[in-house]
Amino acid sequence: MACSHGGVYSVDPKMVRLDCSSSVNPLGAPGKAVRAIERSAGELAPMYPDPECRDLKKGLARYLGVNTDQIAVGNGAAEIIYWFARLFAKRRVVIPAPTFCEYELASQKAGAVVTFVPLAVDFALDADAVIASAKGVDALFLCNPNNPTGMLATRAIKKVIEDVDNTTKIMLDECFIELADRQETLLKLVDRHDNLVVLRSLTKSFGMAGLRAGYSVSSPALAGQLSSLKVPWNVNGLAQAAGVAALADRRHVAKARALVKKERAFLYERLNRLESLVPVRSDANYLLLRLKSGDSTHFRDRLMKKTGVLVRDCSTFTGMGSQHVRIAVKTHKENMMLVKALEEMDNGKAR
Fold it and tell me: What one-character DSSP code corresponds to residue 241?
């Protein structure tokens, strides 16, 4: 399979006036992080970066309340997904679907057979079905809030983690948790479950997608196994410096979370008036839209061609079909541009 993503480089970048396909912090990177890059670029550019990311790990440890030996740092969260799959996706893997496609691709590249557990009609996670399917498997991937649905399933996921055999390694992707309405992280479960890896990213919460800095928290033993697969200098020096500065600015994420809650409600209310699509309730910084007719790829392309607004075509998510697109929650000005573009599509002006 091909694992398709959003972003301006998923299409012709020259056609995009507004990218609503990538769900990152709507406020962008913290000013402190940008200034750290500007201040440090001359010094850090000629130097090899710290291969162990020591300062970044110390910053993460303070931010999360964990020990540095529980942290593995990757070139984005995606790199850690592939480490996890190489280590543990030996024969069989279970993945609820639809969800982020890199779990599937990484597992298949590692040689594992993937079993998908479909979400319910309302996109709820069926904990009992996941637990039943996970008997005897090597690894299990979970995502909270789920991508692309935006829904938290904390209680169901906790049940899965507690009931699945401890020989099965579990990756819990919490890359969007810091921008969700309810801060229902299950990070502390790593202290009780030696088979659990919690995945996070500075991409989403701190708006630093272009710098590529992700991390995981687990038992020290699992963190060591994951880190053993990294290539030398896998996280560049500017990303490390920006990450340290970003983590010191907790207000940035809190401000973004409040904005997301307000603006998502605005988008839901306005888009719920349209006849051509239905927004799905979300807890995260993005909304899934169900198209009442037509094909999601055609809809994305037509919208971009006529208005310059790019949305995420969800037909590439296993189990999703071709009736959904995903939109990022952005600033009010940008959200108004998105609403007007979708309204044009709804009343036929953009046909």
Answer: H
